Amino acid sequence: MKMFFSVLAALLVVSVASSCNAASTTQPTENPTASATPDSCSSRFLPAEVDKIHKLMREFDDASLLASNTPRDQLPPVISDMQRIRRSAEDQFVPPCLGTLKQLQLIHMNTVIDTLIAFLSGADQTTLNQGTEISSRQYNAYALEYARVLGLTVVAPPTPTPDMSVTETPPPSTPEILAAQNPGPQELNMYFEPSVDSTIVAVLFVHESARVVGESPDGQWIQVEIPNQAGQFAWVSVSSVELLPLAP
């Protein structure tokens, strides 16, 4: 009988040890799951990424405006600040979908800075006028790309075509070209983008009209060509203007 209890105790020890070993070998291990990297080009994150680029563009615009109102002998520090902004733009990381926007931004900044340096060096008026014209076109290209990546609607005016008919049949109708007129009683601010928080790039005087070229997706803003500045565009609030057929 004594030997029986000794054998039973030994079997219990072996049984418990085996159970513990089995539990330790079958316990699942937790593998950390890697979090997915957010897609900066998705509709959720894209506006914030665009704003990072455009924030520097606004800062550069302010510096450019300051330069245009600064005497020649006081320009060097202003140009130096513009070069600082350009370096920040160069160093800024952007997702692949915004590579073109950044490139257009840098091209415009370089032209403006080069033109100002040429002005300091005593360049002739023709050279300065060319630099100003080129920088304006580059700014317009940046604005169009900005509108494209944010999904803003830009409607190009219809291209006139010669009448090749030999009969008196009237030609097909074309979309009506509209003008936005400021009804008054005060000047109307024109913005770089469809927001009152955007940079003011021009004003529409009382009873002055501007050709409409597009509208925002929500229909609350329209894009117009700035009067007397061919190829330069800005945004105005629909509620602030009257839409009229564009006079021939």
Defining traits:
single chain; 248 residues; alpha+beta; SH3 type barrels; six-stranded antiparallel beta sheet; 5 helices; 8 strands; disordered N terminus
Characterise the protein shown here.
- The strands form 2 sheets. Strands 1, 2, 5, 6, 7 and 8 form a 6-stranded antiparallel sheet that branches. Strands 3-4 form a two-stranded antiparallel ribbon.
- It has 2 domains: 46-151; 178-245, Roll (SH3 type barrels).
- It is globular and about 45 Å long.
- By secondary structure, it is an alpha+beta fold.
- Residues 1-26 and 155-175 have low confidence and may be disordered.
- The protein has 5 helices and 8 strands.
- Helix 2 packs antiparallel against helix 3 (75-91), helix 3 runs antiparallel to helix 4 (99-120) and helix 4 (99-120) packs antiparallel against helix 5.
- The N and C termini lie far apart (122 Å).
- A hairpin with an 8-residue loop joins strand 3 (188-191) and strand 4 (200-204).
Q: Helical residue percent?
A: 40-55%
pLDDT below 50 for ≥5 consecutive residues: which ranges? 1-26, 155-175
Order of helices and strands: HHHHHEEEEEEEE
Total domain modules: 2
The number of distinct helices, counting runs of at least 4 residues, comes to: 5
Distance between the termini: 122 Å
Work out the strand percent: 5-15%
Supply the helix-strand structural class. Answer: alpha+beta
- Apparent shape: globular
Rg over C-alpha atoms, rounded to the nearest angstrom: 33 Å
- The tally of strands reads 8
Largest beta sheet, briefly? 6 strands, antiparallel
What's the average pLDDT? 77
